[in-house]
Specification:
The chain is mainly α. The chain has one domain. The protein has 13 helices and six strands. The strands form three sheets. It has a two-stranded antiparallel ribbon with strand order 1-2. A two-stranded antiparallel sheet has the order 3-4. The protein is globular.
Length: about 350
């Protein structure tokens, strides 16, 4: 557990420095000056969570892990997301700019050879291979192959999780709590899988990411002293997706521990499109907003709900096969959908 402990301590120690830096330069998320319906906090708070996560994961990885081309690509993409997160903390970038840089970070990772070559067959035994069709070409005197379907699926998987996880950071302690727990379960699964193509230990990387978000949680839990911001939100989905791929294409497991954010994300996209709005512009229609506005839940209660939900689904995922996980995901999604539809009807009344 040294991977977790070192990352946790670095995150806990460097967060006050980031808070001081942001307050010194007045890089604050002030709901009075910058009003938006999606905001739930009432006091000016620095963002900067992306710096904390990036520093804690990178420094711990340098201490513990053996860098290879895969880990180098992972942190190259993470650097891009962290830099864009810092700029967004200060200038509030367009969501389309964030989407474009997230796509670039995903392409960096997939271009290094991190892809989803197969998924478990939910309708029978064995796996479904994604290594065909292939595009083969010569570059600098060497032959290279691109697994088209595998690469497209991996890019979509990373991009999807980056966005839906980033949307689930509306209240104090919400995002770092359930992300830390989710990474713990991926670490358990990665420890069972010994065929990862990397030189570094994937389970250790999962524990490093878990420790970083646990350290941020200390300062983000109610009453929050720092907000995760786009940097920490995008890095959360980015690392979770990559860890799932490296630990044996545990797509169903990752979607299961993220079932509530995933269901909320699907409903949000559908709702915005049906209303003739862009799916990328924020509003006050997420699950955590409904729990606050129409059911009187406090921020601590919502954060604990997300943490316990991910933990419960994570424990369940350890004992279910792929078909069972898909059923669990569908049932959870249906429950969340029904709740959100009921809340929408209640809102209209």
């Amino acid at each position: 557990m040294w991977s977790f402990v070192i990352s946790f301590l670095i995150a806990v120690a460097c967060t006050p420095l980031v808070i001081r830096l942001y307050r010194k330069h007045n890089w604050l998320d002030d709901p009075i000056k910058n009003q938006h319906v999606k905001k739930t906090h009432s006091q000016a708070v620095p963002r900067g969570g992306g710096i904390v996560i990036f520093l804690a994961t990178l420094l711990t990885a340098v201490i513990i892990l053996d860098f290879d081309k895969y880990l180098s690509a992972i942190f190259l993409g993470a650097t891009l997301l962290a830099v864009v997160g810092i700029i967004d903390d200060i200038y509030d970038l367009s969501p389309y700019v964030r989407l474009g840089t997230g796509l670039l970070a995903s392409l960096i990772v997939v271009g290094a050879g991190i892809g989803i070559a197969y998924v478990s067959n939910p309708f029978g035994v064995g796996v479904i291979h994604l290594d065909q069709p292939q595009l083969t070409f010569n570059l600098f005197g060497a032959s290279h192959s691109i697994w088209i379907l595998s690469s497209l699926f991996a890019v979509f998987f990373i991009m999807w999780n980056m966005n839906i996880v980033n949307w689930s950071k509306g209240v104090d302690g919400q995002l770092p709590g359930f992300v830390s727990v989710s990474c713990l379960f991926i670490a358990i699964l990665a420890n069972r899988f010994a065929d990862a193509p990397t030189q570094f230990n994937v389970a250790h990387l999962a524990l490093i990411v878990s420790g970083a978000f646990a350290g941020l949680l200390v300062w983000n839990f109610y009453p929050q002293k720092i907000i995760p911001g786009y940097g920490a939100g995008s890095l959360a989905g980015y690392f979770l997706s990559i860890l799932a791929i490296l630990s044996g294409a545990k797509v169903a497991t990752t979607l299961m521990v993220l079932a509530i954010p995933t269901a909320d994300g699907i409903f949000t996209i559908a709702r915005r499109i049906l209303a003739g709005k862009s799916p990328f512009w924020g509003d006050r229609g997420h699950l955590h907003h409904k729990l606050i506005d129409y059911y009187g839940w406090g921020k601590r209660r919502i954060a604990i709900f997300y943490i316990l939900s991910s933990a419960s689904l994570g424990i369940l995922s350890l004992y279910l096969d792929t078909r069972g996980k898909i059923i669990a995901i569908l049932v959870t999604t249906l429950i969340v959908f029904c709740f959100l539809v009921y809340s929408k009807i209640k809102q209209n009344k």
